[in-house]
Amino acid sequence: MPKYDYVVIGSGLAGLYASFRAAKYGTVALITKTDLRESNSYYAQGGIAAVTDREDAPIFHYSDTITAGRGLCDHPAVDILVNEGPERIRELEREGMYFDRQDGTLLLGLEGGHHKRRILHAGGDVTGMVITDFMINKVRACHNIDIFEHHQAVGLLMYDGICFGIRTWNTAACCEQHFLGKNTILASGGASAIYAHTSNPATTIGDGVAIAYNAGCRIADMEFIQFHPTTLYTTSEKNYLISEAVRGEGACLVNQKGERFMKAIHENAELAPRDIVARTIACEISGQEQPFVYLTLDHLNPKRIRERFPHISEKCDQLGIDITNRIPVAPAAHYMVGGVRTDLYGRTNIRRLFVCGELASTGIMGANRLASNSLLECLVFGFRAIEHTVAHQQPKTDWPSFTKYIYRDESLSGEYVRLKKHIADIMSVHAGIIREDSSLSEGLALLKEERQKIHTDNNEYYTLLSNHLITVAGLIIRAALYRKESRGGHFRKDFPSTETAFEKHLIQQKDKDIYTEPVIKNTNHEQGTID
To answer: Which residues does 117 contact at the CB level (< 8 Å), separation at least 6?
Structure first.
């Protein structure tokens, strides 16, 4: 079994950046389930939110983030994000990362919930692809980093309450493979592809959530799934995102009758927080024949639109859609706001296990992620996790031995594919944008029925993955049932108001009932750490 100073799981920006930082201090195994470019980070269009303009300030970014989080943001984490974020951006630029500029000045976008232009972008509308490719090149150039593609993480290597690395299934060699590490960084992304309509790649189904939960980690706020208001709607395209930056440039939403509807709902109209825009679109769709609304750009400068959004323009052209006129759009599951609960250094309640990126619940996102904060969170907390390991180095490790026991029965692959689709339908119907007790309860009952159908040997690969899917779906639905209010990315039509009594985090832990934790409102950075 190979041994490393750092084992990093996930090749989104959090995993790539953490690997790059860790390579300065030791050996790194970077493990990903498919190839390095298959991640939410790679497909991110909008950009990175960070204060770089003299007219802006961290306190303004802080205020916008807190407001979007609907009372559930942990203030110290937000304070760290907005104050340390600009330095992480400057470091990237010193490494050679280029953000779009005009006459030497950064071009800054505006997105929903932001009151200042602070969204850095690269390549126009493919920031995620550009910055991910940049970090991939950096990682590939590091002699301290070994890259292992097509290795599906299936469990943590645990001994005496300590994490010693990751258990994987090598899909190319069809065998179980272990990676031991003094420090393990889980950055395997979110879970929104567990829904039928999603902006995410098909691989983003919450493996990391299930793995961490099964090991005893605390899982927070899983009821908050952010639905992106505007994914391209066609019969063939299931997950192409139309960036919020398009609305930031002045695009308007209109219904089937051609009526603009967001101005009557929120003072910021199309740039209202995402949960409000997505929910309003869903209501418009329910009252018309078309399963989509239009994003109209016919009042904007067509040359400017095509220059600012070259890749979205190209995609629309391929589908016979004129981006300078109007684009059919509908909401889709986009971002897992909750996740594995961490402290301000990415630490979990399991020793030597860190979690970063979308998988982590740092307390920044609250009940509703502020647009373009996610890539910045990857940088800020990936940096903090690695620096913490350096400041608190582990003593010489006595490595336990671990048995390999996973096998794969190909005859069960079809059942897994069927289950994955069925769960996606269950989640979309019973735990979508608008929820209620009876529908959520029915969804939970359907999950229990599916659990009973699964092969009984959890050492079998497809059975293990099937249980992971049901675990993640159950965490979302149980939290949604528990939170009897509406807040941010969680809307209950049977409890439409926001209740002060629910201004708290919901925590789920294996073999325990759901319990709550207070939101941290002070800015003492030592508060809320996990021992």
So the answer is: 53, 56, 108, 109, 110
210-267: pLDDT as tens digits: 999 999 999 999 999 999 999 999 887 667 889 888 998 899 999 999 999 999 999 9
User: What are the backbone angles phi and psi of residue 502, rounded to the nearest 5°?
Assistant: -100, 15
Provide the residue type at 322 as one letter.
Answer: D
Please confirm, yes or no, whether 140 is among the known catalytic residues.
no
C-alpha–C-alpha distance, residues 154 and 151, integer Å: 9
- Indicate which residue of 21, 88, 274, 341 is catalytic: 274
Q: Which CATH number fits domain 410-497+505-518: 1.20.58.100, 3.40.50.11690, 3.10.180.10, 2.60.40.790?
A: 1.20.58.100
Predicted structure pTM score: 0.93
User: Can you give the residue ranges of every domain in the chain?
Assistant: 227-332, 410-497+505-518
Domain covering 227-332, topology = Flavocytochrome C3; Chain A, domain 1 (3.90.700)
Q: Burial-class residue 518 by CB neighbours within 10 Å (0-12, 13-18, 19+).
A: exposed
Measured distance CA(530)–CA(357) in Å, rounded: 18
The 10s digit of each residue's pLDDT in 413-433 is: 999 999 999 999 999 999 999
Residues in the chain: 531
